Amino acid sequence: MATFTIKGNQFMYNGEPIRILSGAMHYFRIVPEYWKDRLLKLKACGFNAVETYVAWNVHEPKEGQFNFQGIADIEHFIQLAGDLGLHVIVRPSPYICAEWEFGGLPAWLLKDPSMQLRCYYQPYLSKIDAYFDELLPRLKPYLCTNGGPVIAMQIENEYGSYGNDKEYLIYLKEAMIQRDMNVLLFTSDGYDDSNIQGGTLIPDVLATVNFGSRPEEAFAKLQEYQLDKPLFCMEYWNGWFDHWGDEHHEREYDDVVDVLDRMLKLDASVNFYMFHGGTNFGFYNGANFLGKYEPTATSYDYHALLNESGDITDKYIAVRELISKYVDIPDIEMPSPIRKKHYGNIRLTEQSRLFDSLNLLSSPIKSKYPVSMEQLDQDYGFILYTTQISGPRAKNKIVLQHVHDRALIFIDGVYQGVVERNTHDQTVEIKENDILAEIPPEGATLSILVENMGRINYGYGLKDPKGITEGVRFERMFLYDWTIHTLPLDDLSKLNFGERQADNSYTPTFYKGVFNVDETGDTFLKLEGWTKGVAYINGYNLGRYWDIGPQKTLYVPGPLLREGENEIIIFELHGTRDPVVTFQDFAELG
């Protein structure tokens, strides 16, 4: 057993003063085979703790169905950290933000249109209780009070930027205490008055603050509300994340080191967000909406101390040098660098068109009107809406009211255009050979393929159902009698592939290829000449690619490959003239 407590303005571990120097890394953004590598590098940099969020949607992907295996094995991650002599800070609050899909909340919460999130609303609290009943007993053996490495836990995350329901925060606190989470509990928020008043000031819960600069100002504001307690920056933003279509964010190490030095001179404890960012594999990237919908890229490199593939950076070296002036850094043998491999160009020789494969991927659902993914128990991926337009009809527009998040429009299988969420006028004109076309007497088939590009993870737009959320109009007339195919694309094994047929159509298509590997290692998938879609290696969803950048390659961890034959499948939405990909030995961001 051990104790982690507060005495005045000092943290105490087993009765001795301690300063926490922590780094954030998320087990669910790193393949498990690399957890130990990243944790060793954390300790070798002079840190004495690791911090991680807990993503509810990873652990309860379907209501009542829990997952704690593979990349979701949080118990193994905590055990590894403890075995290496690291303290662990766990943030199991239901909501995590983290630029993660829906801020970590499971999509199935939105099946109930009246669901109220992040407040004292009993149906929501009941879902949390069921989750905590499964999660928290798994964490209990790892608490420091039970001889484990976990010294502190968070009850909610940056709540002051969302709401001010103190009854809700107290409920979460009591929910943890009732399940024997008898370690230090804390909140973390921005440091202005609004955030602190809304998200902190809970009895017997330590308030911490998040920022990237001006530490003196941040801590002074915190002390206006919380005197005689340790200063703790729970999220020191030493880098930043990227949105699709934005530039790659970088923050130079001299600035990072300067702010850290000023915090350490104030005797503050610090948690680097992030120490190692990792990857938004699959469809787990989140999105922001502060007047404009902005989905986060697949790479969560964050310009952190370790880059996306876990390599040491100049920032790592500079931070380690500064930390060594404050604490004795243990002499640790660093892990051997992980090989980066160049496997060259691979031609994808087989294909399967989406519209020819619908019944292999999904069972059709009949509905009078378009409904959202959540109403059909779908979490991620794509959804296809199909209906008939009677004819003859004059030239007119298809109007989507509204689309979340990006839709491809087809008439009789012919691509008409794309409608994106940020477009104020969500319409497409029906054309044939670039000329406005009429609906013929026999009518036409309208198909709308909608991509969920990531639910909003922060702020007032958190409730973010996906698909077509209201209806579809032909000019002013709403269209009814739809056939819907849910396309989570979580299992492509039933697809029938045939020899590729060369064409210049914009039909969404799966392309398949095989390549041989003599020696496995990390590699980076470059999709030059492709437009937008999703990539799979040996059935594992690497994430999205998009030619608008800033991300130019997808990270492929070596453990996803196998010696001998490997399979790659690309789901390309807009078609490619030459289906060739490149596996190279370096990443391209920006």
Briefly characterize the structure.
It is an enzyme of class 3 (hydrolase). By secondary structure, the chain is α+β, with helices and mostly antiparallel strands.
List the helices and strands and how they pair.
Layout: E1 4-7, E2 10-13, E3 16-18, E4 21-24, H1 35-44, E5 49-53, H2 56-59, H3 74-83, E6 87-91, H4 122-139, E7 150-157, H5 166-178, E8 184-189, H6 193-199, E9 206-211, H7 215-225, E10 232-237, H8 253-265, E11 269-273, E12 287-289, E13 293-295, H9 314-323, E14 344-347, E15 350-353, H10 358-361, E16 365-367, E17 382-389, E18 397-404, E19 406-411, E20 414-420, E21 427-429, E22 431-432, E23 435-436, E24 444-451, E25 456-458, E26 467-474, E27 477-478, E28 482-487, E29 498-499, E30 509-517, E31 523-526, E32 532-537, E33 540-546, E34 553-556, E35 564-572, E36 580-584
Parallel strand pairs: 4-5, 4-11, 5-6, 6-7, 7-8, 8-9, 9-10, 10-11, 12-25
Antiparallel strand pairs: 1-2, 2-3, 12-13, 14-36, 15-29, 15-30, 16-28, 17-24, 17-28, 18-21, 18-26, 19-20, 19-24, 22-23, 26-27, 30-35, 31-34, 31-36, 32-33, 32-35
Helix pairs in contact: 8-9
